Predict the 3D structure of the following.
Amino acid sequence: MIASNNNLHPLENIEDVEEFYERLDRSHLTKALSPERPYTYWTIELYDKKNGIRGGGGLGVLAADTRRVAERMNVPLTLITPFYPSEQHQICKTISGTNFNTSNADNTTNTNHAANTFHFENLTRSEKVDYNAYGFNFLDTVNIKCNNQITTLDVVEKQLGSTRIICITEPGFGELYSGDSGGDHRLYQEVALGFGGYQALKLAGLKPAIMQLNEVATFFAALARLDELASNGMDFYEAIVYTRKHTLYTNHTLVQAAEASFHYDQFERYVFPNLKSPAVKKWLSDKFDHGIIKLSTVTIEIAELRSGVSKLHARVANYHELSGKKVKFKAITNGIDIPTWTAARVIKYLHEQGIIDKFYLPSRSETNPIDNISADKIRELKLAGRKELNAILKNHVDQYGNRIEIPEDTLLFDFKRRFVDYKRPWLPFADLEKLKTILEKHNAHYILAGRVHEGDIRMFGRLKYILETIDRDKVLKSRVHYLPDYDEELGYALSVGSNASINTPIVGLEACGTSWMKDIINLGILISTHDGGVADCGPDNYLSISGNTEAEEVESLYVRMEEVANAWKNDFELEYIIKKELENFLPVISGTRMLKDYLDFLF
């Protein structure tokens, strides 16, 4: 039985989506949620290629999923984000050279023969993007003041059911995360989103019922609201109370790559010129410490509601108010839009078996429909997924610039997520002989897919080392594939076509993660450390990597990879693992559950 369904207390008996948000208690809000007074969702990043916007990682993917779920549930939500006029794509460049220090088969050095060597370079190219090509409508322009000049921003929008995407943009806006996190251009982008985006809402005739600030880059949206209230005659104390009561700050990462500190001089040039209220200017000026301001500090001060994106994240996030009091975060674990990330045939099967309902939540039943899943059916669905993966791989190339195809009769492991230090993509390569033995013994392949953030020299060096190591070994070169320019299409394809996914963050550093959720819903096996959203359930509900040291974790990882290989050959083991994952994680991974939790918390 899926006993954890009982935790889905909000709106549990609703059958009609029209009633979904009507039954919520909004006694502390001034007005009801409505199309004119929507739930506003602010994000510096959206990853939604269908609508022409390519993000950088999980934050953007989550934003797109949240909007899709809201549209499906008929919830009035407006997402405000920049439309970046150009986007970056990753290119691998290989260079053949000559190495006069080669090794023979017996590992003795031979300096008398030259050999071709492989060198990897990580390059990017920029591609122009036009919002007109993706069905956005031009509304009008708004102006902000930055660096002693007026900057005019285009406001464009797209209506999608009960939801809207409103974007601000201009030709010189640049790419996502361009420049240093504390640099002038990044501050300009964030100020443009906040002050420009808030004007854009008014231009569209909308008043926010709630403002959800996703990460600190969106702080200036709440500041713009505070300034409007205070400059229109509301007492400053009342204005700050009102703004705080109607603002949610959602922290998405425990590794503060997105964190920024700015100098007072930068605020004098980019922020203060956009404020009308002297009281707001004074309030903001007082938040500087020795001429420096951290956006996390002021975001916490302007938002009464705070949330983390998994149970573990909410417990360990270490933030403090200016008073020194530790911030308490409400745990609302991320979820995914299940229809977007799940193979249609798998969705059909889960519906037919009564495992998920029409809201993509676990079905309620006196018996457990998951018990009816068979190993034969899992293999059948995965075989179809492998064919879909190979069809999509025709649009991608590996590190050598070649298109690859994964044989249908082989086992496939994958690592598909951002290439950052704490996610440790190098972990499976810690003992090359053991990795090679597993791949050869079980006729397995391994796909690495992920992007290194521009400027991350350390991570690029690790990726370069991995790829050059692969190139020097005949077994690894034939069975390990790196796919650059990772995107949504490739993320979906690997979820439906891989047998197992490897997730190796350092425990305590992953806020949630959602890639692993896509593997579970597509009947794949998860190998993971007990971190982020995975830790919402016990470590006995998936193949957990354990150990007190990294060396112990590496050994545990190889043991788990062997277990995966054996499970796909053994009906009982395969059924046991897949059923265990579904029983425990279906409530966790559902985007519908996530939205219900947010609405219950906010309203």
About this structure: Residues 93-127 form one domain. The chain has three domains: 31-85+129-332, 93-127, 338-590. The radius of gyration is 25 Å. The chain has 19 helices and 21 strands.
